[in-house]
Amino acid sequence: MLTHNLGYPRIGINRDLKKVVESYWKGDISKSKLVESTEALRVMHWTKQKEAGIDWVPSNDFSLYDQVLDTALLVGAIPERYQELYDQENDKILSYPIDTYFAMARGIQDEDHDISAMEMTKWFNTNYHYIVPEFSADQTFQCLSSKIFDEYEEAKAVGVITKPVLIGPVSFLLLGKEKEGGGDFHRLDLLDKLLPVYQEILDKLERMGVEWVQIEEPFLSLDLDGKVKKAYRKAYQKLDEDLGELNLLLTTYFEGLGENSDLACELPSDGLHIDLVEDQNQLEVVLDKMNGEQVLSLGLINGRNIWKADLEKAAEIIDQAEEAIGSDRLWIAPSCSLLHCPVDLEQETDETALPAEVKRWMAFANQKLDELSLMKKLAEDSLTDEEQELVRAHQADLADKGESALVHNPDVQERIENLDDGILHRDHPYRERKKVQQKHLDLPDLFPATTIGSFPQTKEVRQWRADYRKGKLSWEEYEQHIKEAIDKLIQKQEEIGLDLLVHGEFERNDMVEYFGEQFAGFAFTRNGWVQSYGTRGVKPPIIYGDIHRPEAITVKWSSYAQSQTDQPVKGMLTGPVTILQWSFPRDDQPWSETAKQIALAIRDEVKDLEEAGIQAIQIDEPAFREGLPLRRDDWDRYLEWAVDAFRMASTVVEDQTQIHTHMCYSEFNDVIEHIARLDADVISMETSRSQMELLDAFVEFEYPNEIGPGVYDIHSPRVPSTDEMVALLEKAADVLEPEQIWVNPDCGLKTRGWEETLPSLENMVEAARLMRDKV
Length: 775
Ligand code: GLN
Ligand code: ZN
Fold this sequence. Notes:
The protein has about 775 residues and is of the alpha/beta class. It has two domains: about 1-130 and about 140-405, TIM Barrel, CATH 3.20.20; about 445-505 and about 555-775, TIM Barrel. About 45% of the residues lie in helices and about 10% in strands. The chain is built from 28 helices and 23 strands. Helix 12 crosses helix 14. It is globular, with a radius of gyration of 27 Å. It binds glutamine and zinc ion (ZN). Zinc ion (ZN) binds next to loops. Catalyzes the transfer of a methyl group from 5-methyltetrahydrofolate to homocysteine resulting in methionine formation. It catalyses: 5-methyltetrahydropteroyltri-L-glutamate + L-homocysteine = tetrahydropteroyltri-L-glutamate + L-methionine. InterPro entries: Cbl-indep_Met_Synth_N, Cobalamin-indep_Met_synthase, Met_Synth_C/arc, UROD/MetE-like_sf.
């Protein structure tokens, strides 16, 4: 039996990759220095994995920005607009055009160029974002970058024989999109042109003496139509034709193979990796269908979460597989690349963030590698006495987690057991609420103007928070600063002429972390970074136990803001689904249960806000749609608990209190019926860039409640004109009832500067006034 790893976090233990890449961008270090420092990082990672006893360590899992973008460069899929740059880039280190590469990722704007970046989107159901390859009808491919070969040699030079990672041809095409105006074709039609390049790559790897290639086809875990299945058969038959000694490990993750298990087992490959964390049931099916020679790789350690693995349970699964196919053909691994979890738990020494009792239930990437080695020895019955002791302690930690009073809170559980259905409903339907709210809030009947919540988080604001954390500011001083910021903002909003005001969210670092920090059941890390995209990372909170809200969180800020004005101020909360999606969740109960607990904690906050005199409360759910499972069959179950969680959080209020929600980057077509079931009085969303296209779903569905389609693109410092915003609002008024429409930006303003924010909002309010006169 062999152990292997699918991918190691590339950011480095101290976010070293971020530092060198950003220094390069700033011009502080040279190209060769960049190459040198990242090589050092890779060598460190290979050595680390080898020392942990991993038999097959991956190479080409490293990336300066993104592995899909690397693949685009590998096969020469450089969109035309970067061609000029590529031609000019004479210092292509090892045939790797780094500047063209970064321009593709981030766009480039200087005296000579103004080229937009390629699109970015979420990597399956993770919070990692990849660069979307662009294809045109006359697309050609060629083996361009030598990265995959270079990194193999690099590892070999330091004594590590690796298994190169390569995104498979079908997944690569499916990950991309047909370029607008690029002709009428389907990207899978390019397969015939792409395959020879893959053949060339594999051929070269073989000549270099590579034994195994981890060829990744995550789409095999999704719903596939006939066209895709056909492409799979064709591609792998073709690749198999002239493979000599080189072995392909067909790699899937994030879901079970489901009804594609026939297809996956039938494709000519020398091995298959399956994700048994997401779907354990597939094991039996796959064991049954594999041919007599294939290697089976069992993904047994969760590559996306931070909990210790149950080694004994894993050993049982290994036994089951071993009985069926023997140990020679058996590999064990994490479920997916460890890219999705932080690097090293040892670094977390701040017990105020992460209590020692919780820490000992956890494992980051380095710890997971050790788990893998132990798991193998446990299954093989070859543990030394010392290792036996390690396994015993490990399992004891898990048993302790199962019973710990930190995890289980009888009050929370009792409350959930005694919930009745009434908790999911407002007192009266929207139509009736609307009348009461109109009187209560006294907003303009038509086109009321508001914002999404946050205002510029200037350096100054962030400095207060940092100083308070370091003890340089007392709580009273900190509070005073925030209050002054709120005072000024209230005054500004009144001057601008906004109708429903906000307090500005100056007290928040992050919309999820802020709430997590005040809920019981959450822990935090100081250095638990996970790559989100490029050099950006996130530090997701850790949900370890039953959640409740020991005391009110936002009430003091919102009621302070309300005390400064006669106009209504909107309370601002993050919704249960988003808090859950952007955290590391518990693995000992279903997500739906955790969502319920968060929902109840928010419900308490909503009630307190209402009692403190707040007349409108917004519960943001930007992650609602991205939480959709990868398989259609699982959608209904998700939507059921996700909608219930939102309702549970929001329906506690009287008819007169207006509930808002907000979603950004959302596509609503598939889920509009469920958005309607949220029964928020008002929903705001991002629409300005799509020219109100997103509204179609609402129109078709005859969405009954109020809608604030964003008219101001907050992702750019540009100041939108009144005319533009009037034009967008007219588009909205053409298809919606005027009484339904709110006027607001696309999203929060926290990343903007005041210089552009003020004139933009003035123009927006002017647009609302013009619209009121028009209808
Ligand atoms: N209320 C939040 C803000 O304005 C919403 C952020 C979001 O949707 N991502 O910042
Ligand atoms: Zn938003």
